[in-house]
Fold this sequence. Notes:
The complex is a heterodimer. By secondary structure, chain A is mostly helical. Chain A has helices at 2-11, 14-28, 33-42, 50-68, 71-77, 83-111, 117-121, 128-153, 178-186, 189-210, 226-250, 277-285, 294-297, 299-318, 322-356; strands at residues 363-364, 369-370. Chain A contains 15 helices and two strands. In chain A, strands 1-2 form a two-stranded antiparallel sheet. In chain A, helix 9 packs across helix 10 (189-210), helix 10 packs antiparallel against helix 15 and helix 14 (299-318) runs antiparallel to helix 15. By secondary structure, chain B is of the alpha+beta class. Chain B folds into two domains: 2-54; 66-181, 3-layer Sandwich (Rieske Iron-sulfur Protein), CATH 2.102.10.10. Helices cover 20% and strands 25% of the residues of chain B. Chain A binds chain B through residues 163-171, 181, 184-189, 193, 253-256, 267, 269, 271-274, 359-360, 363, 365-366, 368, 370, and chain B through 84-86, 88, 103, 107-108, 110-113, 115, 117-118, 122-127, 129, 137-140, 142-143, 169-170.
Amino acid sequence: xxxxxxxxxxxxxxxxxxxxxxxxxxxxxxxxxxxxxxxxxxxxxxxxxxxxxxxxxxxxxxxxxxxxxxxxxxxxxxxxxxxxxxxxxxxxxxxxxxxxxxxxxxxxxxxxxxxxxxxxxxxxxxxxxxxxxxxxxxxxxxxxxxxxxxxxxxxxxxxxxxxxxxxxxxxxxxxxxxxxxxxxxxxxxxxxxxxxxxxxxxxxxxxxxxxxxxxxxxxxxxxxxxxxxxxxxxxxxxxxxxxxxxxxxxxxxxxxxxxxxxxxxxxxxxxxxxxxxxxxxxxxxxxxxxxxxxxxxxxxxxxxxxxxxxxxxxxxxxxxxxxxxxxxxxxxxxxxxxxxxxxxxxxxxxxxxxxxxxxxxxxxxxxxxxx
Amino acid sequence: xxxxxxxxxxxxxxxxxxxxxxxxxxxxxxxxxxxxxxxxxxxxxxxxxxxxxxxxxxxxxxxxxxxxxxxxxxxxxxxxxxxxxxxxxxxxxxxxxxxxxxxxxxxxxxxxxxxxxxxxxxxxxxxxxxxxxxxxxxxxxxxxxxxxxxxxxxxxxxxxxxxxxxxxxxxxxxxxxxxxxx
Lengths: 371, 182
């Protein structure tokens, strides 16, 4: 028992867990041929059958029940604040399964030359009143009853009056902002708090203009919109849902990482000496002092940024995004590539922090400009 | 056909005749849009000025910015947290000087905790860590904690003046006003 818990605590460390999550994503939603082969060999498509769904859920419930036997796990998971996130984990998995289950049925039907299920359904007319309104009304009653029971059963925590000189330890954002808070660990507040949220919203608004694929309108499908679904799922599942769960369950006092069965020790010591890229290049690699000129000091970082945002889109257009580039044209491809690369900076910076302890690629604290 | 005639020059009497359906002609459309937009801009400007006024309250309930912090002999080597709650200042003494550190994290403004065991300040929001000198060494904080002006009064008391701050990245920590040599 203790060995299992210890093992889970060990692999819950971000360096390991993030790799596991990314790898499972690549196998479940394979973006490249290489992963497609693994996907086929493992028979991942069986996950989206009814049996597969039962298996996923039984596993999740089992894991959860096993966790509940542990005091530290109970303390975090059953905290009234965190109960919705537990529900969210199950709901996200359920709806991903439901969508892909229906998509797989439709894809199989289309592959046999048939029509998607929705095609037949959409020919039948249903009245808004009473058919739809009744369903909505019943749903409303159930949700209202659930909220009342929930509010009585799990009272919202009341804390002390706000005091600017005391920050609760750990200080957690509301759950829907925990992804952003996790981002703030790796970025300057200007970037993670202002630029990225704006770009995320603009990027979401761009989707209908980027993705003009008419297939998949009005019916669930995976095969017809593979690229779109793969890209979206990565950012939604890995960089949003996963970060929210990490922020809720695995971030403890002093914003340190704690395994799910680990005691939240306020004195846990984790040495995280971080350096900027300029310090790494000049002081460690070149073994000299930092140049006094700011631009010269940050030249390595600027060089990397120019290559990343200037050259990389062109290189990608010639290689892995060749088809995409042909389909999208220059303008739409450029916008897509910049948005895509910006989003990828988050995992890249996470790895840089874990592997090389790099804090900022460009660090100009004199002007609040840090990337 | 009355409908296809060019619009009659606009006088108040011919309006109805020119527009039997009661549609607005171009001239009055422009007139009314000028009226409408002026009213809209006036309302927005009015509310805007109220918001702007709100940003400059008549009375500010802020703790005083300058306070007395005892005499240098009160402080042993290390970090004193006695003014953290009231003034947001740590008084730090090392082997040669006393200085006043701001308790505001330079990353996003939370209040770090002093961990005596590890000899560091650790922010609970995103995990930034600072040495007792204020230098940032872990987590995302881009620059060291700020120091405040500190000096000895004529009576030999320590005075901390929060209105003037000293930032390491601007090379201000060597300023004699930012420390008391002991």
